[in-house]
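A favour, since you know our structure tokens better than I do. Would you make up a two-line entry for one protein for me to read? Write everything out right here, beneath this request.
=====
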Amino acid sequence: MTLVKIPITDIVDWIRTKHALPSVLKEFRVEEETLVLCFAEDEESQREQNSQLLKNHARKRRARRRRNRMKTRGWEVVARITNSKGQYCAIYKPFAEALQDPKLTIEEQKKVVETVLKSNRNRPAEASIQYFLDNTLEYLQKQRERPFKDKVA
């Protein structure tokens, strides 16, 4: 990894030597892969530029939102259930097999789920780990109760 730091004043001075720009640097920021420099001469033009930039900036923010999805390609779906939160979710075989042992502690279960997710090149957040863990445990609990209900009835 190589880290390069360039003071913004050096960049501003370099740009000013190439172009006839106003003397006041009002604002600077990075948008996607570009550096945006805002120059102004007087306060009136500054207000107009600021209002335009705020409108454009808000629109771009909304467009950059991205959903975090876990890669589950290649995993067999054991079941599709509606969990206790009313969400329709798939139960995947690697989780069902790994969490079969009821003697695992909560921390061990979390670690197993995290390992399975990472094995498929995911970078799971705590919320994702908890989601797959809770749904799989809920499914396994229902599976353990089902044979018992069949015997009683």
User: Anything to note?
Assistant: The longest strand covers residues 24-31.
